[in-house]
Amino acid sequence: MQHAKPLPSLLVQRYHGWKATTFAENSSWYRRLASEGQRPRSMVISCCDSRVHVTSIFGADSGEFFIHRNIANLVPPHQPDGAQHGTSAALEYAVTALEVSHLIVLGHSRCGGVQGCLDMCAGRAPELEEQSSFVGRWMDLLRPGYARVKDIVPEADQARALEKEAVLVSLENLMTFPFVRSAVEARTLSLHGLWTEIGAGELEYFDAVERRFVPV
Amino acid sequence: MQHAKPLPSLLVQRYHGWKATTFAENSSWYRRLASEGQRPRSMVISCCDSRVHVTSIFGADSGEFFIHRNIANLVPPHQPDGAQHGTSAALEYAVTALEVSHLIVLGHSRCGGVQGCLDMCAGRAPELEEQSSFVGRWMDLLRPGYARVKDIVPEADQARALEKEAVLVSLENLMTFPFVRSAVEARTLSLHGLWTEIGAGELEYFDAVERRFVPV
Amino acid sequence: MQHAKPLPSLLVQRYHGWKATTFAENSSWYRRLASEGQRPRSMVISCCDSRVHVTSIFGADSGEFFIHRNIANLVPPHQPDGAQHGTSAALEYAVTALEVSHLIVLGHSRCGGVQGCLDMCAGRAPELEEQSSFVGRWMDLLRPGYARVKDIVPEADQARALEKEAVLVSLENLMTFPFVRSAVEARTLSLHGLWTEIGAGELEYFDAVERRFVPV
Amino acid sequence: MQHAKPLPSLLVQRYHGWKATTFAENSSWYRRLASEGQRPRSMVISCCDSRVHVTSIFGADSGEFFIHRNIANLVPPHQPDGAQHGTSAALEYAVTALEVSHLIVLGHSRCGGVQGCLDMCAGRAPELEEQSSFVGRWMDLLRPGYARVKDIVPEADQARALEKEAVLVSLENLMTFPFVRSAVEARTLSLHGLWTEIGAGELEYFDAVERRFVPV
């Protein structure tokens, strides 16, 4: 921590701008959120990608969304082995402590993590197959999605198909968590799968009846 | 995935509002970001908490921040064991593929995860000590911080002290990643520790010379 | 060049202050901008006036704005006659080489160039009408704006009206450049007209529907 | 002007941040600058490049620098032909109306305009040689600089040498303006040539005695 540097002055300036405007206009709400605690309606699991901010897309107010962001918006299957599982911890906290009503998985186009998975599965990225590759091992979670895509989808469309599979694999894995399953069955929690095309600003949701993504 | 539900209409409405305004105003920029790829300047590691959105505090533009959010903004130590490490994967992608210039860890007041860690370490939360508790195992990462706080800081101040330790533990663990260390030493990457008081909108950064958090 | 003098020591001091603070805090970002090249999102055309710095108003980061500044933020019409056109060259570089997404023309109150144009057009500044007057010939570009203002706007308001016309004339002339027009029509580029009142810090934009400037 | 769009909301937000902080803190100074007019000490001629903001490097206050920015910080020779010369107009206004004391030409590393000139002069950029190329015709101004560099400087160093020539050519051309020459000779105006290395944040000035650029 002796390596820590002061914040770049531009960000300091922007923070003061926020403090004097957005914060000042909403200070009583922020104060109340601080004293009463958060009570978010939804948890969102989305990608770290700098081009996909769910708070922007849904005009989110402070206190509304509990947000976990990781590479390619993936949820691993339930694995209560005593090891550190950051995504599972976030999920457990949201569902059992905060009791959110909605669990939204948001995928997106041009996802670097998904592209890496595709390259790895197709044998084009040996460096991702090494044990020491954190990205490679994380993207292993999407291998079941690749298996469903590789023989059916033309190669040119596989990246997009796999991005949507990343949402579906996560939805499937979510149901392996007992606390998610029981909340869904008790109808206190609903799951939602979304995918956004970042260049065109399109948003699609997974329609469980049609079994495909359709525009919202 | 047969459990997936359509998006609540409130969010559909807000999405259409965003599409007609923010997206429309910036469509050429979004299109360019989509075709050229992201080039974020900074990675931010912050908490899932619904009251702390770094994009708001810093008025972030699309494309500026690569954001990983987990419980209590924790970074585990480097552990190249072939298991799934979501935080490490995000870190690896940001530093080695995107080559971000800044790595910012943002902690905050009233953090539920940190409070859970405090309760667990003080013996007040046996349920978090169970192997099956994802939150408990995740918060184990902060035990070294608790060890530094417990005998020195008065009990009433321990939560706040531990929130700041969560930032410092993460900064320490960041340096155990060879790719982070070498980028820091090559001065192509700088680390920053921040903590925000959500009720008052205050922002502090860790001053490595003074060895304490000071207002920006 | 035998006339060149060393930099005044005050500026040398300030440079060293910047180097030790802003530059040091952002050195990895500057290094990256140097090696990867700039990728600005916007081009701004604003006045040379020392009281109007767009980088300040918008808290601009290094790399964000490609800025051309001339007297009265004027864009001449497209004139591919092989002569030297500094504004057209800047425009061509921004739109065709850098492919900026936004083109912002920023006018301002108390503009000396615009006042000169008004005086010249009203016959009160014969020295500006001489062929050898660079300011006069440059301000000829705004004569079409004066024609729209002179009989309609009361004399006391003409300076302000003409400042806004300077923005509108530039917006019109921008569309005479084939590369601007085609980018606008392809929706990869959007044009924006702004005017700022420097004493009150107000900012207005041209609303193309209402056909007038309104506060942002 | 029917094509003008509203300002992107992010810039609106940043403007409000500036208004509530920097502007609010300095409102009396801004008001005075508005009512009394500007009285800048220096004119700076620098490049449009988004990575070179002289206001940042010299921590410029509002009112201090009258700034003209064009491609490659070039000043054309005095040409009182009645045509539109934006750079000459800015120069004339600064020296004869504002009576600035310093005229600073600031060049920089990795200049796209200079690189284009180099490619054109070396026969590698036929598109820039076309009459319709505004960038090409503008960069013709630097041909005398290329002539001094081409046979003496090794090819690998020519871009940097030509960037510095861009400053020197401008200093030479400045002296062809009668109002500049007479002010310099009356010692009411001094000229300065600077060049900055953007990746390392270095700043050099032209030393007329040594006849080379040296660090400030």
TrEMBL record, chains A, B, C, D:
Pfam families: Pro_CA. SMART domains: Pro_CA (SM00947). CDD domains: beta_CA_cladeB. Zn(2+) binds at residues 47, 49, 108, 111. SUPFAM superfamilies: beta-carbonic anhydrase, cab. One of its GO terms (molecular function) is zinc ion binding. Gene3D superfamilies: Carbonic anhydrase. It catalyses: hydrogencarbonate + H(+) = CO2 + H2O. Signal peptide: none annotated. The keyword Lyase applies. Keywords: Lyase, Metal-binding, Zinc. One of its GO terms (biological process) is carbon utilization. Binds 1 zinc ion per subunit. Its cofactor is Zn(2+). Its EC number is 4.2.1.1. It comes from the Bacteria. The keyword Nucleus does not apply. It is an enzyme of class 4 (lyase). Reversible hydration of carbon dioxide. Belongs to the beta-class carbonic anhydrase family. This is Carbonic anhydrase. It comes from Roseivivax isoporae LMG 25204. The lineage of its organism: Bacteria, Pseudomonadati, Pseudomonadota, Alphaproteobacteria, Rhodobacterales.
